Amino acid sequence: TRINDTIRILSGLSLILNASKQNQCIHKLTKTTIIIHQTQQTQNLTTPKNLQNFNKTVQITKDLNNIQQNNNINNNINNNTQQLSQSLVNSKQTQTNLDQSLNNSLNHISSIEQKSNEIIEQPNNLFQIEQLNNELNLDYLNSNKLPTKSKARNVPSSRISRAFQFSKLATQLSFDIATKAASNLIFKDTNINTGQKKTLLNESSVEKITETLCRMRGAALKIGQMLSIQDEAFIPPQFAAILDRVRQSADYMTEKQLNQAITNGNINNSWEGRIINFEKIPFAAASIGQVHRAEAILDCNLISNNNIYKQKINENENENEKCKIELAIKIQYPGVAASIDSDLDNIASLLKWTGLAPEGLFVNNVFKDARKELQTETDYIREGKCQMKMKELLADDSDFFIPAVIEPLCAKNGTILVSEMVYGLPVDKIIDLNQKTRNWIASKLLNLVLRELFEFNFMQTDPNWSNFLYDPKQNKINLLDFGAAREYDPSFTSNYFKLVYAASKKNKEEVLHWSIKLGFLTGEETEIMKQAHCEAVIAVGEPFSIQGTYDFANQTITKRIHDLIPIMLKHRLKAPPLESYSLHRRLSGCYLLCAKLKAQVNAPLIFNNIN
Q: What is the mean pLDDT of the chain?
């Protein structure tokens, strides 16, 4: 529409300009002819009248030159008008092609969704599931695969080598930052959003940071994951790009380093005669370790009773039953545990120096929480116990499956964890399934978060969506990775429940009371801060405040909190309680997932059913 309006305006201007310039040209030419004729009637050019006519002739000649220049401009306008017209024609043709492609895609998705509905109703038809997988370009049984960019590289294992990598990165960034700072001084950049801190990073800087994080792993990646789950308003665009690229470019240990890590775990004797196949290329690589697929023959009593993938290989009453089973073996990167403190110190300096540290987040508290969490996550013995504890707590819920830990195969030094292999699709990848299935998954995960917090006082706080795998063959959700699981004091969760309940009733006085009780506020804040805090808390409690189903697809929670952030950053007097960092990461991760799935969830019913 705007292109059409522009063409009409330009065409009208062109016609007006043509008519005006032609009339002026005729008038000037006529006048020039008369003056020249008068000049030719006399031989004496020295009279005042003749000199005056001569000067007029010179001026008219200049005017004619100007008219010619205007005519050239007019021709350019005509040419541009023709080009715009042609562009409009091309644009309309492109739009027609896009509309046709969109219709074809919608028809294809509708067909797939219909097949998906049929398959969900018949979950045991594995052939149909695999056929659907091919159409959706998804692989439910092998969804965990490393990105194609992944490569084998030694992970720096000593404190010296890791400190050297940070120093090398700092040196490389120095020139980029100095160049950007000088550019900002010479070419004034006014495109800076109010309230946002501008970083001195360019594309080259982002590449260097990404390369270092991919190689370092450990605390470097963990801090990035903790910051990335915050609202986007806290994260500079450059940092968001780094985090996204790191997730797509996981590196893994070389075979030599892998063999050394297995040797250090001292598990050769326990593996002998049990592990019959071990894949040296991992199918997953994270911040602390990497995961390998293996096959083993084990006593059946070590394996979950409801594991449908185990294969019994003997039923001799005089011997223990043996089963063939696939395993997931998580092996920790060497040196990660010993370098946590030095890594965090180096990262803190790097974030502040480059301007990547989000303002108002009380970064020192984030690092304090990260230090504690990293120290627990590198202890795979503790993680195995947390995994089995959650398996016991959810034993009454058949919609979830937690793989059993095969304790005899785990490393005694806590660097190797062996569990049953599970299959499924990360829950953020199921957006092509039908609405009913997406609603069911979102409802189950929201209910799980509330049960973990308010019933168990024990929560798996890592919101990584790859830790929740949907298995359509069993219509179950597989739960993984309990390194970040932690307990909460019952008094904290009790008061937090009262805060959420007050938010669901939109009772600002109660919200303020329990916020002070929990330590989110001191009570001495300005009225504008108290008001902003209450509005943010009530926004978070909105899904539990309505009657019936809450539509996460149309939620405005994120936008409302985003608008309140500048006020809270400016007027906050104290950091939130440490317990809230991990809790809010998991809760916000669940909200974001529900929104991504465009789920419709009866959140009030779930909340009211919590014991």
A: 77
